[in-house]
């Protein structure tokens, strides 16, 4: 599948969607398990976990788009892929709330 | 045209028409042609649009004054529910499917869609499903819980009648049609194009439809799953949504909106694709920013799956989780902005000409931008806490859907009606009709924003005078009647065009896309021969291409064996790689749809023992479809008029049906993932967990089924080294499937009582039933392959049937393993982390 | 050009359409407490911004349509990148940030000491309110003290309802098996309207309630006069 040039168009976005689901599921599971009241220093375990996950997602997307850019020749399809990947990386802004918003309320 | 060229063209026209045309009279029931099916979809959708419009007028009559006694609350509930259902499921989606079916082959330089019989089947399913729903309305038993059917209101306790079943079964039936259309569109766009048309040379409309079809493939399965689970709760008391027995009403909301929000973009994007085609033609300049527009469409597709919870801000989800969805809902406006500014840039650098479609483009921009802005407002969590479920939301969604779909589709209609009828508009009514709709619409729905902010909730049938909503509501109602008159004028205008419009020779808009490089109205075969594309396919010259293609100068410019031939290309580069021979007209789609309809009808009548028999008939009929598929002897590569000879698609490595199987499995996997996540969601969120009864974990069943599946997959995968050996392997695979099925069904029978007592057991029941169903299909496929070997359809060069089977066996193995592991995981979770 | 006049006339007409009068017992635009006021402020801010953006986009469209060539000095890619990417991105990130800050403010705001906790229990088709863990109850009328944050926990006995007192704060769905909360506050004593805003069957229209806001001393007296939950249910 990753050999298919079509995959390069969607790679970062698929990563974004997967990351989105993981974050949402982690948040819900963490609230259920009470990780939000378990503190490490001044920050709850759950927040640390979510921030770490969000950062990981950003790095994975950067890696994916870097790889796609390096592999592809400068064809129109590769240019569309680069734009789409860039948009997916920008869209990780959606996860910024994990830094400061109420975790379980 | 020279006389000899003319003669060739005429002869070719006659030969191709004999092969491709739909016969008159009763023969129409055999139609599989994309032009015919596309027009049927659009016309039927317009009839449903009229029905939905009448329902809207009933709503506006009811709300025009305070304390109205026009409809009682129960009748009003059916009316507003059906208005939403009809407009969303029976008008919007089928209409753009019809438009896409009609246009795509013509724009892509092909003669038909990849699976003509499937389009016909999809049409009949849509028609019958729609008739179920409208029939229920006439009989007074229509769905009445709102178009999103929230449980527990729609559960058996609070809707004991058949109303909710009509929704669940009717909509699922229509969704099957939509899914088959999605697969059809995906494969057709990816594989059936003119040679040389690489992905990035496609007309932009094809990109939009490619993305939309992909979204449908992933977006519809959650709703189908939700409908199945809710129907199972209503019919068999499996408590997926009942909080007293470990279910959760919120599960329904998640499943519904996981479909429901992408749905809005699924409806908007085809309209945007039409605009991206129309605006450049009217601006006399190719679309600016083709590449960034494609990237924007991809971005919308993914973002639209990340904002479903913005319909659920008021259910008590923690703020940080809401922030993901709020941000995604806001950010989705960026790629929408990219498209709008791509259109503006095209107009700015072109020489725009005033015309009726342009008037509707103006209507689109005015209305849709307002709808988008209120959409961003509603994406803000605190504002939504006030505006949610008020008439503000009603106003917003109509601005988005009418602005984002109806106005663009009217632009599209005025633009492409000359193509359909071969006649041009005489324009007497067009302007008046537009202004009536435009003014009426804004009167109706602009006022409604304020009605909502002043506190009027959705779906109330009466309100007291002291609420202070009467003036605004009266304005809305009057606006609504003006708008309806406008739509009636548009209908009349279309009729006048069809009957009295003035004929034209070719390409009235001076467009640069391929659909105009053919006679109008279009012949059944679309192109007498297929073009070679060497530039972006919205910058072509139809006036030069058309006559050459009609004279058979392109690919496949002659007929053989009465075959319906098109070219299959490499999906990225557009290099021609196979000759795809399509199946011809037949009554089978109609019969199969009738049989499928009877399955749903039997379920509706609660004849649960007869329904499986009808299902067997459906399976048998589908197997009959394959009689015309494939080859009974190996063929040499076929000449196609230019370039090297190409293999028949049955000899090709990746024919269309292979991709159809891949996409079907993708949709299937989405449904399964939704089911597994749904069960985990219940563990996480539902009250009354952990269950007060033992979760049935039967190690013997699991081990036996896993062993059988591994055996089946191993034998089903056997590569071809002689028909006898394969046949023997397939027999073993079939036996293994049979054994697995027996063990699994025994297990299901054993737990069905416990399944009605708690959602944990019910979800195990659902997951294992899914596995059982796939095992049953695996069994049928193994036997089918044996039949194909016996009938001489299989050889070393003709192993497509076996390869399709192999895909299924692998999928069944993987999903089966997950299904067998599932009860253990659930036990671990429910036992361990329970409160 | 005749058509041009049509375009503009309608534009002028519909932009001045009804924005008059924002009063009413259930009007979210007539806030009577800090929660509803914070949301109403957000609305007015977004309305102003939205109107400006709408006029800008529509103006550009009409400009390039009726003054062909006027947009040609700007290159197509600049049109798209500035108008379609940079501008919306900056605006939206600012707005989303603002919306989240305001949401966090509303979720954490405490006025007048410890919040008062009440339970709103919806059933087809009326509301029952419980105070002090069910020791006191009232039907159809929610009593609250003035100037103190009230946390309403909503739940349901049958289908989904939604608790909404627009002048005092946002709404919260009452879902069977769940208990979600919303904060409301009244600045002044008085009677405020409330209504169920999730469709809940044929009695949905009539599922109204009132919120009576009392000064602190009077509130205690009113509560003391209420009976327990069983009597209220009669």
Short recap of the structure:
The complex is a heterotrimer of chains A (105), B (835) and C (234). Chain B has 835 residues and is an all-alpha fold.
What does this structure look like?
- The complex is a heterotrimer of chains A (105), B (835) and C (234).
- Chain A is 68% helix and 4% strand.
- By secondary structure, chain A is mainly alpha-helical.
- Chain A has one domain (5-99).
- Chain A is elongated and about 50 Å long.
- In chain A, 39% of the residues are buried.
- By secondary structure, chain B is mainly alpha-helical.
- Among the domains of chain B are: 261-503, Cytochrome C Oxidase, Chain A (Up-down Bundle), CATH 1.20.210.10; 663-832, Four Helix Bundle (Hemerythrin (Met), subunit A) (Up-down Bundle).
- Chain B has 23 helices and 4 strands.
- In chain B, the strands form 2 sheets. Chain B has a two-stranded antiparallel sheet. In chain B, strands 3-4 form a two-stranded antiparallel ribbon.
- Chain B is globular and about 85 Å long.
- Chain C has a single domain (24-73, 110-234), classed as Immunoglobulin-like (Sandwich), CATH 2.60.40.420.
- In chain C, a hairpin with a 4-residue loop joins β2 and β3.
- Chain C starts with a helix and ends with a helix.
- A 5-stranded mixed beta sheet of chain C has the order 3-2-1-5-8. A 5-stranded mixed beta sheet of chain C has the order 4-10-9-6-7.
- By secondary structure, chain C is of the alpha+beta class.
- The interface between B and C is large, with 99 and 90 residues.
- Chain B: Its main location: membrane.
- Chain B: One of its GO terms (cellular component) is plasma membrane.
- Chain B: The chain crosses the membrane at residues 41-59, 79-103, 123-142, 166-192, 204-230, 264-283, 290-309, 321-347, 359-381, 393-417, 429-452, 472-500, 586-603, 609-626, 658-683, 695-715, 727-751, 771-789, 810-833.
